[in-house]
Amino acid sequence: DAKTTQPTSMDCAEGRAANLPCNHSTISGNEYVYWYRQIHSQGPQYIIHGLKNNETNEMASLIITEDRKSSTLILPHATLRDTAVYYCIVRVAYMDSNYQLIWGAGTKLIIKP
Amino acid sequence: GAVVSQHPSRVICKSGTSVKIECRSLDFQATTMFWYRQFPKQSLMLMATSNEGSKATYEQGVEKDKFLINHASLTLSTLTVTSAHPEDSSFYICSAREGRYNSPLHFGNGTRLTVT
């Protein structure tokens, strides 16, 4: 089972910041939080990941609470092309040195003009 | 950034035939690749883990004789759906990890399989 909880859907106005919340209250100390998105009929696209510090890259920012039980993905200036399903995933240790991502239902983000 | 290429993007086949899907890491070597299946309006489900030079590891409930996986090189893994049936119609996606343990997975663009 997925270890994260996300809202089913969200709307955001074009040009505004989109803030996508995620709860992962059972996260372990060495588990990372990953964010991916999937545009309709395409493969998932990696966005960002983090352990406990806030992270920023050219696509987004990731804010992780101090207790690590929740996080927020921020798309600073949403465009219509950001409409997608956004998945917040806690990495699960898998097969010794490998790891796997357990996918939940994600948040369908709709950017409106 | 790392690119994973998947081919074909779309295939229609008749019931009883076999279909091969290729997954290539274009600019990095991937000792491990993963195969997923996604039904409409559902999330990704891991089918198997493909390891270069060894047998794939299948998730519970996935028939290894039906979904043949070959990871012949560090840049290529193939999934063959044998004796396909309409219920095998789905969106199949591969992924690969570049480098270190904490590196993100990169995904192909998926293959839409329709079995008639």
- Cα Rg of chain A: 14 Å
Task: Output the radius of gyration of chain B.
Answer: 13 Å
Sheet/helix structural class of chain A: mainly beta
The portion of residues assigned to helices of chain B is under 10%
Class by alpha and beta content of chain B: mainly beta
Largest sheet of chain B: 7 strands, mixed
Beta-strand content of chain B: over 45%
Mean pLDDT of chain A: 90
Order of helices and strands of chain B: EEEEEEEEEEE
Overall geometric form of chain A: globular
Task: Using a beta-carbon cutoff below 8 angstroms, give the protein chain pair with the largest interface and the number of residues from each chain.
Answer: A-B, 23 and 23 residues
Protein model, in words:
The complex is a heterodimer of chains A (113) and B (116). Helix content of chain A is 0%, strand content 50%. Chain A is mainly β and 113 residues long. In chain A, the strands form 2 sheets. In chain A, strands 1, 3, 4, 8, 9 and 10 form a 6-stranded mixed beta sheet that branches. Chain A has a 4-stranded antiparallel beta sheet with strand order 2-7-6-5, with no helix packed on it. In chain A, a hairpin with a 5-residue loop joins strand 6 (61-64) and strand 7. The N and C termini of chain A lie far apart (35 Å). By secondary structure, chain B is mostly beta strands. Chain B is built from no helices and 11 strands. The N and C termini of chain B lie far apart (37 Å). The A-B interface holds A 2, 32, 34, 36, 41-46, 49, 87, 94-95, 97-101, 103-106 and B 4, 6, 32, 34, 43-46, 49, 57, 91, 93, 95, 101-102, 104-110, 112.
Question: Which helices and strands appear, and what pairs or packs with what?
Answer:
The complex is a heterodimer of chains A (113) and B (116).
Chain A: E1 9-13, E2 18-23, E3 33-38, E4 45-50, E5 55-56, E6 61-64, E7 70-75, E8 84-94, E9 98-101, E10 107-112
Parallel strand pairs in A: 1-10
Antiparallel strand pairs in A: 2-7, 3-4, 3-8, 5-6, 6-7, 8-9, 8-10
Chain B: E1 4-7, E2 10-13, E3 19-25, E4 32-38, E5 45-51, E6 57-58, E7 67-73, E8 76-81, E9 90-97, E10 105-107, E11 111-115
Parallel strand pairs in B: 2-11
Antiparallel strand pairs in B: 1-3, 3-8, 4-5, 4-9, 5-6, 7-8, 9-10, 9-11
